[in-house]
Every structure is written in structure tokens, then in C-alpha cells.
Amino acid sequence: MAFDLQEQEQIDDIKAFWRQWGRWICTGVVVAAVAYLGYKGWGYYQRHVATEAAVLYAPVDEAVRSNDTGKLVASAKALQDAYPSSGYAARASLLAARVAFDHGDVKTAEQALGWVTANAKEAALVAVARLRLASLKLDANQADAALAELAKPVDVAFAAQQLELKGDALSVKGDRKGAHAAYLESLAKMSPEAPRAELVQVKIDSLGG
Asked: The Ancillary SecYEG translocon subunit/Cell division coordinator CpoB TPR domain covers which part of the protein (predicted)?
């Protein structure tokens, strides 16, 4: 088919444009396609992991209801091994720590809490585990170990509790000035209606402040 001069010029322009930019356009299309498929694949993988982790979490619920520490710890360990980054594994480990502590197994409780602080992806779960671990250290008269744990950052929502525990640890060490300052800072971060505000005030008053 013959083309008139104007059509031929348009065709030549298209060819020239394609020679200059065609490779980059193709690359961009391929990258976009791969990114889209990767996004879809990642979403599927995440849903699959969540489903499988939920299945493994079922024995955790059963163990809590039956107060079976051994089964609970084993179920939490299975989640830790299979899906360490899932919220289910962190929550199961927190439950295992609580039940183990209630049964006097402080070592297992500390191990479970330590696992959460090292592996949980949710800042709130890490904070809960860190504060509980510090409390266990304090209960064992390990004030320095408790303070070392409390020196690590926690989610801002837990700052008041962290500072209160810091005050407790400093008080145990005989650092009344440091404890007083920590309690005051803790109280400043609480709402006046907060359940622990009155108790923290009592602690401040007991130190002569």
C-alpha cells in the first residue's frame, strides 16, 4: 500500500521514536507487570500464612482453656518455628509466658517473653513483653537487669508504665532521687483518671515528694 508524503513522515517519526524509546517502554511495562504480579503474589502469601498460623493457633486456645502449660508452651513453640513473624506466634508466646509464670515456671516465662521482644513485629506486643520481662527481673531482685530491659525503647503508649517500673527498680536500688524523678515523669504521662495514677502518686508521696 502506498502512503502519501504526510503519512510517510508520520510513520518515519513513529519509527524514530520507537528506536529511541522502545526499549525503555518495554522495560517499564515489564517492570510494572512484575511489580503487579509480585504485589498480588505477596498478598496471597500473606493470606496463606495468616490462615496456616490461625490453624496452628487453635491448640493454643485449647491449652489456655484446659490450663495445660505443657501443651501451651509446645503450641507456642510450633508457631515460633513455623511462622515467627506472625502476630499469632507473638500472642501465643505472651500467653505461654503468663501461664508458665502462674505455674511458677519463671524460666519458661522469661524465655517466651524474650522471644517476643526479639521477634514480634507489632510494637505494642514488644512493649508488653519487655515490661513483663522487666517485672520478672524486678521480682527476682535483679534491679540492674530490670533497668537494662527498661532502658530499651518501647511504644509511646507504654511510656508511663515503663517509667513507673524504672522508678520501682531505682527504689529497690536505694536511689530515692532517681525513683522520685521517674515516678513524676510517669505521672506526667498519665491521664489524671488513669487507673494507676493514684498508685504512682502514693509512691511519690512515700519518697517524701
From this structure: 15-208
